[in-house]
Amino acid sequence: MSTIKNLLNQNKNHKRIFKLAGKLGQSLGYKTYLVGGYIRDLFMSKTANDIDIVVDKNGITYAKKLSKIVGSEGFIAFEKFGTAQLTFNDLKIEISTARSETYSKNSRKPLVVFSDINDDLSRRDFTVNSIAVSILPESFGQIFDPFNGIKDINCKKLITPLDPNKTFKDDPLRMLRAIRFAAQLNFDIDIKSFECIKVHRQRLNIISQERITEELIKLLRTDKPSIGFNLMQKSKLLKYVFPEMLDMHGIEIINGKGHKDVFIHTLQVVDNAAKLTNKMEIRFAALVHDIAKPITKRFNKKKGWTYHGHEEVGKRMISYIAKRMKLPNELKKYLQILTKLHLRPIALAKKEITDSAVRRLIFEAGNFIDDLMILCRADITTKNHIKVKKYINNFDKVEKLIQNVKLKDEMKKFQSPVKGKVIMKDLNLEPGPIVGQIKTAIEEAILDGLIKNEFNDAYDYMLKIKDKYLKI
After folding, report:
1. pLDDT in tens, 408-460
2. Cβ pair 336, 318 in contact under 8 A
3. Closest by Cα among 164, 219, 187, 230 to 238
4. Which of 37, 203, 238, 373 has a CA 20 to 30 Å removed from the CA of 117?
């Protein structure tokens, strides 16, 4: 018990919330617990900013009072389910009334019956999320673990508290959560639970597309997303989440010539992107960059397998994929741009190129040029170290060219705040090279940091150096 007390007291801001929440529960006569992912993460030595509190009586009444006590910046109540959400600094606090749930056949919306902590823990998705800890002053740190969730955390196992058939049939979204948690926590899904996912996979049809897409994006945010996508493929959930990826799987051989398994390659690119950046959008671009390879695949007797135009076809495919997944329009456009351009940087590195060619790429990629280069680096999946070194050197070369062109363009746009007309008028000069020399001297002084890029500073500097040029 001392261990969990120490863990609960590690974060001063969180500790303050726990103390206030516990004292409020005591004053109201409510049993008050921390539950769910926050407790799981504590046992795994991870930090979280989502706090779940369960009370055994009216959660809405409790939440309203707690909101005032902590000075919450936001409050939303869901009366039907006895839950409320508070926001405080960087914390999200969800308060629930302990409850049990029953489900109808064609809906994941439960019929809620308010109950006690044991029923509440039994309705949760996995045993590792079915642990509660009291935060009442008199029992602070007391652990309730009726389904041996701590043991399963130590064994790195995802097991449902009740029969997995009931768990997944009641709320099919839990099947996707199992996949995501397996990737996020690097846990194994219990064999019986995994088999039940296969059995009930069609139940995903009753889940809204928004919730499915939300789980997909959460999966992309994990350290190694390929774990989840491989599990979706093995459990046959991929058909309901991202059916276009099914066509990526497999290798075809003609005349002894095969090609890469696009599914495996894509997941390697996604994992590479995850190592290079935390930006979910780049990881999503890695997921879709070769989405059109299966339908553009052709066999050429001389060249072997080709995928001509897959970047352009992929861009068009993303249009209806984004519509089905209900992605934001900004994300759709982003994915289309990176998919369309993902071959361009390596093509530029293979030949002598002009500034205009680089400028064209910068123009087409816009603000996403740096993201495009990260995607291109992630796209290197060969195990040939010589090829890897060559590709890396090529990308280094292209990035240097991009930066040089950017610098040149910025220099062209940069001009002295003191214009030529002012120089001529105030120094009584005729048009000629001296005007340009003075203007250039002002610009160089700004670039060297000698003066600010402001009219008054530049004008004073002009007066300071004018005699040097007027004597010429």
Report:
1. 676 667 778 899 999 999 999 989 999 999 998 998 888 677 888 889 999 99
2. yes
3. 230
4. 203
